[in-house]
């Protein structure tokens, strides 16, 4: 999609983005496709420590470095801003410039909560662009958990 065809001025996407994989990339690519600028929220180390994760998570700095390399690869560094997330909603809760949230099917419920909170505060709701989960070769979702367990690689290919 050319820059002229991009539908929205500001699109936001957020997550932990630990071990950047095909599912994460699809989410970010969709945000870059539909938005002139992309606000990319990344959970901080402090937020990760408060979350009930059952596996190790790379540091914020490592995760941001990997995201920046991906944005450079996509020639999109000039259109994306990485911001730290210290809570589940981040700037999307209050930033009136955000037009759209790109979310996975897995996180769509949290995005609907965000819209309810925005509405309760008298703010306009943001459009939700929900993408399907990216599946591995075995039909299960690609996830950092599965990658860390050695079941699949970052592209969803089964490992021996």
Describe this structure in words.
The structure is a single chain. With 160 residues, this protein is of the alpha/beta class. The chain has one domain (3-148): HUPs (Rossmann fold), CATH 3.40.50.620. The chain has 5 helices and 5 strands; from the N terminus they run E-H-E-H-H-E-E-H-E-H. The protein has helices at residues 22-34, 45-50, 60-73, 108-120, 144-148, and strands spanning 8-15, 35-43, 80-85, 100-104, 127-131. The chain has a 5-stranded parallel β-sheet, sandwiched between helices. The longest helix is centred in the middle third of the chain and has 14 residues, at 60-73. The termini are far apart. 31% of the residues are buried. The mean pLDDT is 94.
Task: Give a summary of the structure in a few sentences.
The protein has 160 residues and is of the alpha/beta class. It has 5 helices and 5 strands; from the N terminus they run βαβααββαβα. The chain has a 5-stranded parallel sheet with strand order 3-2-1-4-5, with helices on both faces.
Kindly identify the CATH topology. Rossmann fold
Architecture per CATH nomenclature, i.e. the level-2 architecture: 3-Layer(aba) Sandwich
Biggest sheet statistics: 5 strands, parallel
Strand order of the largest sheet: 3-2-1-4-5
Number of β-strand runs: 5
Quaternary organisation: single chain
Low-pLDDT sequence parts: none
Percentage of residues assigned to helices: 25-40%
| Strand percentage | 15-25%
Helix/strand-derived category reads alpha/beta
SSE string = EHEHHEEHEH
Compute the CA-based radius of gyration.
16 Å
Total number of domains: 1
What is the CATH superfamily label?
Answer: HUPs
Provide the residue-averaged pLDDT. Answer: 94
* Cα-to-Cα separation, first versus last residue: 38 Å
State the helix count: 5
Shape: globular
CATH level-1 class: Alpha Beta
């Amino acid at each position: 999609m050319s820059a002229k065809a991009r539908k929205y001025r500001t699109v936001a996407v957020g997550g932990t983005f630990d071990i950047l994989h095909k599912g994460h990339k699809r989410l970010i690519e969709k945000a870059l496709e539909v938005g002139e600028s992309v606000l990319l929220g990344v959970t901080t180390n402090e937020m990760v420590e408060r979350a009930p994760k059952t596996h190790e998570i790379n540091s914020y700095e490592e995760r941001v470095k990997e995201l920046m390399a991906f944005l450079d690869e996509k020639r999109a560094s000039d259109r994306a801003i990485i911001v730290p997330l210290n809570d589940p909603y981040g700037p999307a809760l209050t930033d009136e410039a955000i037009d759209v949230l790109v979310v996975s099917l897995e996180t769509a419920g949290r995005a609907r909560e965000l819209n309810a909170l925005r509405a309760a505060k008298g703010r306009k709701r943001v459009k939700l662009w929900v993408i399907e989960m990216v599946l591995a070769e075995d039909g299960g979702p690609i996830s950092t958990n599965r990658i860390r367990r050695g079941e699949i690689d970052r592209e969803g290919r089964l490992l021996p």
